[in-house]
C-alpha cells in the first residue's frame, strides 16, 4: 500500500497567448498600486520587458534591471534599496531564473505579493525553493513565503527565446520532474505531473528544433515548466539539484549544467530506482532513460560535457566532496566515489550506459531489427515488416516466451504450412480461427451502412465453379431439406444489377463440403450463376448444416487444447462480382441454426443472419417437393467502384 501526504501550494496560473495583457488586472487583484519591476536588463528579454512595462503603465513605481544568475545577496540588497525607495507594494518580475530568483529573494525579505512572468521553462516560479549565493557558495532554502501569488505564462513572450536556451531550460524543467519521481515525498499526483512534464519536454524540444516559432511546442514547454515546478515544490529535489547547485556555486551556468548532469544522475540512480527509471524511459519514449536523454540533448545541440561549460578537471574532486557534504534525499546512498564517477563522466561528456537489463538488451535488439528494414524501397513493406517485428518482439518479451515454447510454435507453423494445399487451406483456417481474417475483413470491407456486409472467404472456395442456369439444382441429389434460393443484386440505390457473376458454395446436411467428400467426382453444392436483367438469380440447393472446421490438423488440435468448439454456424457463401462494382464476398446465416453466437471463425454479423423460411406445398417453379422446403430470399447491395 502506498501511503502519502500531499500538500498543494496555493497558486494562480494564467497560461496562454497574449496573457500578459491581464497583468495590470492581476497586480490590482493583489492590491498592488506601486510595482517594483524586476528584470535582468539582458538583451534577450528586452522585448518581453517592454511588453510588460507597457501593460503595467503607471503601475510601475520603479524598475530594478540588475538580476543575475544564482541570486547573489549583494544584488538582492541593491534591489531592496530600490524597492524601499519606491515604497513598492507589489513585485512583478519578467525573465528567466535570475529574475524569478531575485523576486523570490525580495519577497522573502519583504513579504510583498509577487506576479512572475517567466520567459524560460525552468519552472522555479512554481517552487518554494530559493538558491542564494554568498561568498561564492550557493545556499538553498525553502519557504512558502517565496512562492508567487500569481504566475502569468504568455507563450508570445517566449517565441524569441533562442533554441539553445530553450533546450537547457526545458531540461531544467525535466530535471525537476525526474527528481520529483525519485523523491520519498512523491505521491500519485506528483508522479502524474512529473511524467506528463517529462513527456511534454521530450516531445516539444525536437519540434522546436525544427521550427523555433512552433507555438504549440512552446506552450507545451510552459505547461511542462509549471507541472514540473509544481511537483518539485511538493516532492523536493535530490542528488541532481545538489550537484547543479554545487557546480553553480563554482560559476557554471545553471541551466546548461542541468542538461549535462541529468542523464548521468539518472544512470547513477537506476540500480536503486529501477521502476522510476523505466517510467522515465517510457515518458521519454526510449528504451533506456539515461542514454535516451543524453541522445536527446545531443541531438538538440545541447551541452553534454562539463568541460565544455568551463569546469577545470581539477575541480571535480572538490565538487564531489561538496556534493555529499550534507544529506539530501535520493534513492539510495551515494558515496563520494559514486558522485565523482558521475561528475567525471559528465565532465568528459560520455554517453551513459544504462544497466544491462534484459529489457534494455531486448529494446536494442528490436531497434536493430527495425533499422535493418529502414532502406526498404517500398515504404508500405517497411511499415508492415517493422510493425510485425515490434509486435512479435513485444509478444515474446511480455509473455516471457521460453525456447521450448518458441520451438513448439515453429513446429506448429511448419505443420500448418506442410498441410496446406489448394484443397486444404490450413493457414487460412488458422487466420480464421484467430479472428484475423474477420479483422482484416472489417478493415477492408463493410464500411458503409447501405451495402451488404462482407464475411470471410474461408478455405473451401474453388476458383471457376461450374456454370449453372437459373432454377437449376446444385445439390446433385444429395439428401437434405430442399432450399429455393432467390437472391437479387442491386446497387446502393436499389437499382438491379444485371450480368453480375454470383458464385455460391456451401456444406451439405452433414456439414461437409464436396472437397471433403472423396467419393464425389464432380463439384457439388457450388456453382456460378449470372443475374438476369432484374438482378436476380434462382436455384435449388439444400439447407446447409452447421459443421466443424477440419479438426485433424494443427489448427483443430489447437482449438481442442484450448477447449474451444470447432463449429461454424450454418451458412451459404456468396461471391458477387457485378461490372463496375466492388466484389462482395459474404455469407448468409440460417437464423434458426446452431452456434450463431459462437461461430468458431467469428464470421457472423447480424445483417447476415436471415430467415431460411420453412414452407410446404407449392414451390416457386412448380417443382414437386414432398414435405418441408425452405425459401431464402435476399437482396445484396454492392458499392460502385470508386472513380
Ligand atoms: C467456411 O465457411 O467455409 C469456413 C470459413 C473459415 C474457416 C473454415 C471454414
Ligand atoms: Fe463455409
Question: What keywords describe this structure?
Answer:
643 residues; Rossmann fold; Dehydroquinate synthase-like, alpha domain; five-stranded mixed beta sheet; binds benzoic acid
Blueprint of the fold:
Blueprint: E1 12-16, H1 23-29, E2 35-38, H2 46-56, E3 60-64, H3 73-86, E4 90-95, H4 97-110, E5 114-118, E6 129-134, E7 137-142, E8 150-154, H5 163-182, H6 188-210, H7 215-235, H8 239-249, H9 254-269, H10 274-284, H11 289-299, H12 315-323, H13 336-348, H14 358-372, H15 379-398, H16 403-419, H17 426-433, H18 436-444, E9 472-473, E10 482-491, E11 501-506, E12 526-530, E13 536-542, E14 547-548, H19 554-561, E15 567-568, E16 571-577, E17 584-590, E18 609-610, E19 613-615, E20 629-638
Parallel strand pairs: 1-8, 2-3, 2-4, 4-5, 5-8, 9-13, 10-20, 17-18
Antiparallel strand pairs: 6-7, 10-13, 11-12, 11-16, 14-15, 16-17, 19-20
This protein binds benzoic acid and fe (iii) ion (FE).
Characterization of the model:
The protein has 643 residues and is of the alpha/beta class. It has 4 domains: 1-161, 3-Layer(aba) Sandwich (Rossmann fold); 163-346, Dehydroquinate synthase-like, alpha domain; 358-401; 436-638, Protocatechuate 3,4-Dioxygenase, subunit A (Sandwich). Helices cover 40% and strands 16% of the residues. It contains 19 helices and 20 strands. It has helices at 23-29, 46-56, 73-86, 97-110, 163-182, 188-210, 215-235, 239-249, 254-269, 274-284, 289-299, 315-323, 336-348, 358-372, 379-398, 403-419, 426-433, 436-444, 554-561; strands at 12-16, 35-38, 60-64, 90-95, 114-118, 129-134, 137-142, 150-154, 472-473, 482-491, 501-506, 526-530, 536-542, 547-548, 567-568, 571-577, 584-590, 609-610, 613-615, 629-638. Strands 1-8-5-4-2-3 form a 6-stranded parallel β-sheet, sandwiched between helices. Helix 6 packs antiparallel against helix 7 (215-235). The chain is elongated and about 115 Å long. The model has no long low-confidence stretch (mean pLDDT 92). The structure holds benzoic acid (BEZ) and fe (iii) ion. Residues 458, 460, 507, 568, 571, 573 line the site of fe (iii) ion (FE).
